[in-house]
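**User:** Hello, beginner here. Are you able to go through the protein record under this note? It all follows right here:
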Amino acid sequence: MLAFLAAAPVAHAADLLDEVQQRGTLRVAVEGTYPPFNFRDEQGRLTGFDVEIAEAIAGKLGVKAEFTTTEWSGILAGLQAGKYDVIVNQVAATPQRQQVFDFSAPYVVSSPQLIVRANETRPIRSEADLKGLTIGVSQGSNYADLARSIPGATVKVYPGAPEYLQDLVTGRVDVALNDSLLIPYLAQKSRLPVKAGAPIGKVETNAIPFRKGNPKFKQAIDAALESLKADGTFAQISNKWFGRDVSKPPVAQ
């Protein structure tokens, strides 16, 4: 999909920053089903870490955030098609994605981690232990790419986390793979009988993608993120949802 998109760039007459400021809104895509990053609360309101960060960035740009929710499997294609300006949804700036999109400076440091059933007793501590097991992941995610690189493992892809977590609980997959920052929330806030498994892969950074060819917009987004970190807003939002500043590796805090 990304190779196709790269072959068909969209032309833009003006920098995206001009469009956003003239419109008065920053159009932001999130899954809306990915707590604690973005989800709907009991009143149906969109909330979460990424939602608050996006609203704060929009504020620094002098506009309001306007959200679109969409499944992860189609979120990058929607960005390329111009349905929204940015994705604020824990997107890893992989080399493949950088061929298609530009990215902001990184704003989250995290790592992939396994999720297992609460009653799991098998010793699943490394990639070698995943041989012969089925891993549930989101379609088109970097976690799917990582899972496919594990020798002997079977990979099953889903539109998003809710679907594969449900199959994990019912035993249709053996383990799931997602962001390590997601797991404490699942353990503390959700009613799903799951728990943290072993870390897999390496520490990575997540950033905000947008269409190529918008240097003023990139400069403005990076400046907004830097300002949020400097004035303490980023740390305040991060501590609210994670109990720490996720812009820094845990060992650096």
About this structure: Confidence is low (pLDDT under 50) at residues 1-12. Residues 138 and 160 are 5 Å apart (CA to CA).
